[in-house]
Amino acid sequence: MSKWYIEKGEQGDIVLSTRIRLARNIEEYPFPSKLDIEGRRKVSKTVHDAVAGSSIGRDFSYIEMTSLPRSQALSMAERHLISPEFACSGEGSALLLANDESVSIMLCEEDHIRLQVMKAGLALHEAFDTADRIDTMLDNSLHYAFNERIGYLTQCPTNLGTAMRASVMLHLPALTKTGRLSALAATISKLGLTIRGAYGEGSGSKGDIYQLSNQITLGITEQAALDNLSAITLQIVTHERAVAAELIKIPSEEDKIFRAYGILKSARLMSNDEFMELASLVRMGAARGILDIPIEKVNELIVTVQPATINAAQGKSLEPQARDQIRAQSVREVFNNV
Fold it and tell me: Who's near 49: CB < 8 A, 6+ residues apart?
């Protein structure tokens, strides 16, 4: 079954993916921080039963987080299916995961329910429609904590209101290299958005990949937030394309792209940091048409050769050098067969 993260969607040369995340709490239970283990289990079972008894129940697997090997949980975080914090969650926390991994529902993370929908490329309204449909179904069964004046009630006050975080994952190598991203980030913050590393707050950027998301959830509708994020995303996409088109005209910059491609096709050892740096160059070359490589192949590698995902695939925790060998082999196989 095809996964969202190996597809190329709308504006896919720059926009890797779209995510809609809704935070919800069930009216009759305290917030997760006030629940004991038994209370968390009750919440998780209640939500599981609501999904299992619905028309979408057969599309989901139910996973108790304590049953997952650590490498599997961390791999899910690397694939953006769960938050890094949730990967370390304890007893009572559980995950409902769609078979195609496009929808995940974290149970007893910061809130009772963190409903997340992922799509390839720029697909904010499509992702929201899916999230809204599942959200409405759950609300009819569970009855969310909601206040007419301030909206959905959440453990963190910054999520009050719509309790929606919409984000897009962007590949911005040209803006990064030319130093224009810093000025752009300052402008973005004045428009109610924030740009961070790929794994959100506190994370750095690897491979020139960034997460752009809405900051304001109170006093704004979901559609207004989506329209604002979509409009700013398209402006950034246009800017990145224009800067990249000029950058690759410089012989030394074009040379870096082809050298990166050569290394990826032949290296026998490759750390994750080196791979992300080289993959960023090659992805820009593919996006701008100077390398004949499907961007989907690069996208897939960016996910599948991350450290925990390699460990999960091997079924054991490997030493760094062993991972570096497997990573290099996987990369060679892809780039020598495109």
Answer: none
